[in-house]
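On clarity, I found the account of how folds are encoded harder to follow than it need be. An entry of this sort, consisting of the sequence and the corresponding backbone structure tokens, reads as follows:
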Amino acid sequence: MPTPSFLRPALIFAALLLGAGLALRGLPSAAESARPISPPALDEPSNPQATSKVAVLAGGCFWGVQGVFQHVEGVTSAASGYAGGAADTAPYEMVSTGTTGHAESVRVTFDPRRISYGHILQIYFSVAHDPTELNRQGPDAGTQYRSAIFPANPQQAQIAEAYIAQLDQAHVFNAEIVTKIEPGRNFYPAEDYHQDFLARNPTDPYIVANDLPKIEALKRLFPDLYRATPVLVAAAAPRN
């Protein structure tokens, strides 16, 4: 769960009230603020010999971010986890305090022959979260819910930095992007009960209010990249 269990009912109720209030005023909720944006002008060059690459992204609760990328064509795995802190502070109970330096993150493994790193970032900024919210997403607040990119190499960092500048210059959003580029950070997989949470719990009130609209936005804005059947962590786990 993205927030301590004793706070979840109140936060879910608040999220539902917020969404209802915004709808009455004709304004989009946080989960419905997805918008079409241009792809990055700078992207990785094609390399037919490369068959697998990784992007690590943080954009609020990892349930929704993982769920989005599990529905993207060319993605071969999307795992929830933590990045930004040390290995010994990666358990959820510690990360949820907001004092570990970790952010709830998703490790996206993709086939660069089918989708580029730049297009992964395009979906990240357009659909997966709101990159203008500082240390929060929807009802979840704290540095563990920050918007951050953990590049695997200097080239990824350069592409991400250039793309943020490109989007800010075009005034795509109503405020400046607050996404941080944090190189040199390791990714630590989250506990099993966090993996595939959206796919396993599509009627959970938190998922319904905050994350299912992101899946619909992906389908609407990126029809050529949308896959109806998600690629699941559980399906890739070895069987005894």
